[in-house]
Design goal:
Blueprint (H helix, E strand, L loop, with lengths): L9 H22 L18 H15 L3 E3 L4 E3 L4 H8 L1 H19 L7 H26 L4 H29 L7 H33 L1 H9 L10 H16 L11 H10 L9 H13 L14 H34 L1
Antiparallel strand pairs: 1-2
Helix pairs in contact: 1-4, 1-5, 2-4, 2-9, 2-12, 3-4, 3-5, 3-7, 3-8, 4-5, 4-11, 4-12, 5-6, 6-7, 7-8, 7-10, 9-12
């Protein structure tokens, strides 16, 4: 559901940049709070989860490369990762982590436009990590955290978050005056196909969360209860497993991704007759020029080379870059928090 710049007017794109920047600023403020353990309530980011931000960012980057076919539709979908991240990290660290994934996809792999970055962060991050997680997932599992409730909460919250995000896409194109995508027709295609995609992602999310809960229940339980992980508990075991899964997903499974268009492209093709709209103007040219300059593997492949090894390399490289960026942001926030507390 990565939007391209041509789906937006400069005004709509700029407005969503401001909205997403404000949400990111609030997220930084929330997790940069004091590291108090009074009453066991976490007012800031649990330091034991700082490496997990990097690893989970890399895992979601790799996971988003794997489009799965939606049977009988000629369409495909991939995980968004917002609920998965929020369940393991908490909503605010999850939002920052997902924003890190999206900026790397945009700048280095030309996946999603730069003008559209604010929309993509809002549609995939705010709707899932900041809305569906606290209002759907968390209440369902808080009193009874087990495999059944985790599965039900994962599917329901992912579906609701993705439906909200898909509808935001429709509204953003409406407010942008994209006449090629009439509101009614576009919405009637976007919502059902993303319902199907949401069901697929919901089962994937549930599988990962149930595994984590079985192997290391303190991680998921801590995020849900807003408590720090107990001092003797280490996240090294689950970090190692997730790192291995990330490498396998990025380097191997990415080669078997569905070739069908994703839900947004599928809906556009059936509404406008094409998945690639064109827009002209200085804003579009400037945004496109930046991405053209920074994207070293556009489309997750070698430039002018269809060697399938490019997909594997792109997956591994992108996962490593995401790990460094998301983990680095967490370490910087921790350093600032410590400095502020000392002062």
């Amino acid at each position: 559901m990565h939007m391209a710049d041509a789906l937006l007017s400069p005004a709509a794109g700029g407005t969503m940049w401001v909205a997403s920047a404000a949400a990111l600023g609030l997220a930084v403020k929330k997790i940069a709070g004091s590291n108090s353990r009074s009453g066991g309530i976490a007012s800031g980011l649990d330091e034991k989860k700082i490496p997990l931000m990097g690893i989970m960012g890399a895992f979601v980057f790799a996971g988003q490369m794997i489009n799965f076919t939606i049977p009988g539709t000629g369409s495909s979908g991939h995980i968004g990762g917002g609920i998965l991240l929020a369940a393991l990290l908490g909503p605010w660290p999850a939002f920052i982590t997902l924003a890190s994934v999206l900026i790397i996809q945009c700048l280095f792999f030309a996946d999603g436009g730069l003008l559209a970055y604010g929309c993509n962060v809002f549609n995939m991050g705010v709707c899932s990590a900041l809305l569906a997680y606290p209002f759907v997932f968390k209440p369902l599992v808080k009193k009874n955290l087990n495999a059944k409730t985790i599965t039900a909460a994962s599917i329901l919250s992912v579906v609701i978050g993705l439906q909200a995000g898909a509808f935001c896409v429709v509204l953003e194109t409406l407010f942008s005056g994209v006449t090629e995508l009439p509101f009614g027709v576009f919405a009637l295609l976007m919502q059902p196909i993303h319902l199907a995609i949401g069901l697929g992602e919901g089962f994937v999310t549930a599988a990962v969360l149930c595994f984590v809960h079985k192997v290391q229940p303190e991680i998921l339980g801590g995020a849900v209860s807003e408590k720090f992980m107990p001092a003797p508990v280490s996240a090294k075991k689950i970090l190692a497993v997730l790192a291995a899964l990330t490498l396998v997903t990025a380097g191997l499974l990415s080669l078997f991704a569905s070739a069908y268009p994703d839900g947004l492209e599928w809906s556009m093709e059936r509404t406008a007759g094409t998945a690639e709209l064109e827009r002209e103007g200085p804003v579009y040219e400037a945004a496109g020029s930046v991405v053209e300059t920074t994207a070293f593997m556009p489309g997750y492949a070698f430039k002018e080379n269809e060697n399938p090894a490019g997909t594997s390399l792109a997956g591994i490289a992108g996962s490593i870059i995401t790990l460094v960026l998301a983990g680095g942001i967490a370490f910087v926030i921790r350093a600032v928090r410590k400095k502020t507390a000392a002062a």
